[in-house]
Write a structure and sequence with these properties.
The chain is built from 10 helices and 5 strands. By secondary structure, it is α/β, with parallel strands linked by helices.
């Protein structure tokens, strides 16, 4: 039985290339190739693909938001991020939003196909550079203990949304505050948790 795949990629050339790669591979079927998160949320839920290849840098709706909304409608669908971003912040935001795999766009075609098979079988495929960053984040030296009571209720609320992959603009809309106010809260959170990025804050808080 073929592995059914959905593609979400705004670059027309790459979208066509990925669609052809999947469609021409025995044992795989490309159900839809979408140019935006909005199109993906309209087309993919009725089709129920087993695996979705997801770009993060999409027009209008961010890839992380699309992942989160897709997973709400298709909890059994596995999402593999395919992006140029390899920094810890993008990696953790995507994984927290519900992605099961994370590949870089410079991956070879065979790596992409192997990742689709791996993800369908319950794996968590990642490019070696990405896996190294994830492992390194957990091997980082432990910092001094912190008291969560030092965080305000709003700061704890923001951390919870961060752990779900929300971006600053999404946080501002959700909490009905301005983006500069969100940045101020984040700065205070970083100071209290003795961290330098949102991915570090998420990992430390969730521990």
């Amino acid at each position: 039985m073929s592995i059914t795949v959905g593609i979400v990629e705004d670059d027309a050339v790459l979208r066509k290339s990925l669609s052809r790669l999947v469609g021409d591979t025995r044992g795989m079927q490309c159900l839809a190739a979408c140019a935006s998160g909005e199109e993906a949320l309209q087309k993919l839920p009725p089709l129920k693909p087993q695996v979705v290849l997801m770009d993060l840098n999409l027009p209008q709706m961010p890839g992380t938001e699309c992942i989160r909304k897709l997973k709400e409608q298709l909890p059994a669908t596995v999402v593999i991020v395919l992006t140029v971003y390899e920094d810890s912040e993008h990696i953790f935001r995507a994984l927290k939003a519900g992605a099961s795999g994370y590949l870089l766009k410079r991956s070879e075609p065979d790596e992409v196909l192997d990742a689709i098979r791996n993800a369908r079988d319950g794996g968590a495929p990642m490019s070696s550079q990405v896996a190294h960053r994830v492992v390194s984040s957990f091997h980082a030296p432990a910092t001094a203990d912190f008291d969560t009571t030092a965080l305000t209720e709003r700061e704890k609320e923001i951390l919870i949304f961060l752990s779900k992959g929300f971006a600053n603009k999404e946080l501002a809309d959700k909490l009905q505050i301005s983006v500069p106010t969100v940045r101020t809260h984040l700065r205070h959170i970083y100071e209290k948790l003795h961290v330098r990025s949102r991915s570090e804050a998420i990992v430390k808080y969730l521990k």
